[in-house]
Amino acid sequence: MNGREQISSPKRTKEIIQRYKFSFKKSLGQNFLIDQNILDKIVDAAELDSSAGALEIGPGIGALTERLAQTAGAVTAVEIDRRLIPILRDVLSPYPHVKVRNDDVLKVDLKELFAEDFAGVERVSVVANLPYYVTTPILMKLLEEKLPLDNIVVMIQKEVAERMAASPGGKEYGSLSIAVQYYSEPELVCKVPRTVFIPEPNVESAVIRLKVRQHPPVEVADEKHFFEVVQACFVQRRKTIANNIKARYFPQEGRERLEALLAEAGIEPTRRGETLSIEEYARLSGVLLAAGIA
Ligand code: SAM
């Protein structure tokens, strides 16, 4: 350490904000972390060491970035807000292995970024206190691009974390649970109160760890079709599987062929989408696809 207080200490955070006359932009989800315990939990969950790289999305004034710099061998932080770049360059100057990029993470070519910034690195984690207005698009981009990632540890809105980690049968379980669990194994690390941020957000938060899968948990012939079937089955949560599938794929037909296909997939037509496991969705998509229904 450089003999100064951590950036994330409430005192230093306030000092930095005042020195640079920084004003928070609610529209960019700017809530900065000031709790040392929570930062420890986030960094510990990523299991970093000097052979690992860390990609941070939305570093703010560098609270988490500094912790990552003290643990990982290479750190890249992507921040959309141009006003934060000179602040980050200044406060992170003691850490030459940190690279700050001024970009919208949703527009960045992540494969290129990985090739440039993490070339000699054994494994990479994404670690972030995410802007809540774009949590799902960011996580789905990270997962769908099949990047060489070991794990993703992120602070997100508590309800979204619960939906991502939900099992079949409950009201939190939905297409987001299935999408996230297809690519990763989610685990809730801890719940986080509003009081650990400046300014306090309107919602409760949680830290979630997604261990990225090397192979999907089920065999799927056509991923796009699989996810379309899943989406279709949750269009109206209160409707049965048969009714949702009929509305999407057989709007003009009677129920005979639909019921035969559901029977072939081993799925009772009266069940609801929220009761089907990922294996059952894979089977259903496979049967529909084999029958030419896409
Ligand atoms: N990591 C800091 C912390 O924990 O104190 C700040 C976290 S704050 C919740 C989210 C950060 O993401 C803000 O700095 C915001 O400007 C940035 N951000 C918002 N949208 C972004 C995007 N599309 N791409 C990159 N950064 C973004």
UniProtKB/TrEMBL annotation:
<dbReference type="GO" id="GO:0003723">
    <property type="term" value="F:RNA binding"/>
</dbReference>
<keyword id="KW-0694">RNA-binding</keyword>
<feature type="binding site">
    <location>
        <position position="79"/>
    </location>
    <ligand>
        <name>S-adenosyl-L-methionine</name>
    </ligand>
</feature>
<dbReference type="InterPro" id="IPR001737">
    <property type="entry name" value="KsgA/Erm"/>
</dbReference>
<dbReference type="Pfam" id="PF00398">
    <property type="entry name" value="RrnaAD"/>
</dbReference>
<comment type="similarity">
    <text>Belongs to the class I-like SAM-binding methyltransferase superfamily. rRNA adenine N(6)-methyltransferase family. RsmA subfamily.</text>
</comment>
<comment type="function">
    <text>Specifically dimethylates two adjacent adenosines (A1518 and A1519) in the loop of a conserved hairpin near the 3'-end of 16S rRNA in the 30S particle. May play a critical role in biogenesis of 30S subunits.</text>
</comment>
<dbReference type="InterPro" id="IPR020596">
    <property type="entry name" value="rRNA_Ade_Mease_Trfase_CS"/>
</dbReference>
<feature type="binding site">
    <location>
        <position position="129"/>
    </location>
    <ligand>
        <name>S-adenosyl-L-methionine</name>
    </ligand>
</feature>
<feature type="binding site">
    <location>
        <position position="33"/>
    </location>
    <ligand>
        <name>S-adenosyl-L-methionine</name>
    </ligand>
</feature>
<dbReference type="InterPro" id="IPR011530">
    <property type="entry name" value="rRNA_adenine_dimethylase"/>
</dbReference>
<dbReference type="GO" id="GO:0005829">
    <property type="term" value="C:cytosol"/>
</dbReference>
<feature type="binding site">
    <location>
        <position position="104"/>
    </location>
    <ligand>
        <name>S-adenosyl-L-methionine</name>
    </ligand>
</feature>
<feature type="binding site">
    <location>
        <position position="31"/>
    </location>
    <ligand>
        <name>S-adenosyl-L-methionine</name>
    </ligand>
</feature>
<feature type="domain" description="Ribosomal RNA adenine methylase transferase N-terminal">
    <location>
        <begin position="38"/>
        <end position="214"/>
    </location>
</feature>
<feature type="binding site">
    <location>
        <position position="58"/>
    </location>
    <ligand>
        <name>S-adenosyl-L-methionine</name>
    </ligand>
</feature>
<dbReference type="InterPro" id="IPR023165">
    <property type="entry name" value="rRNA_Ade_diMease-like_C"/>
</dbReference>
<protein>
    <recommendedName>
        <fullName>Ribosomal RNA small subunit methyltransferase A</fullName>
        <ecNumber>2.1.1.182</ecNumber>
    </recommendedName>
</protein>
<dbReference type="InterPro" id="IPR029063">
    <property type="entry name" value="SAM-dependent_MTases_sf"/>
</dbReference>
<keyword id="KW-0963">Cytoplasm</keyword>
<keyword id="KW-0489">Methyltransferase</keyword>
<keyword id="KW-0949">S-adenosyl-L-methionine</keyword>
<keyword id="KW-0698">rRNA processing</keyword>
<dbReference type="InterPro" id="IPR020598">
    <property type="entry name" value="rRNA_Ade_methylase_Trfase_N"/>
</dbReference>
<keyword id="KW-0808">Transferase</keyword>
<dbReference type="GO" id="GO:0052908">
    <property type="term" value="F:16S rRNA (adenine(1518)-N(6)/adenine(1519)-N(6))-dimethyltransferase activity"/>
</dbReference>
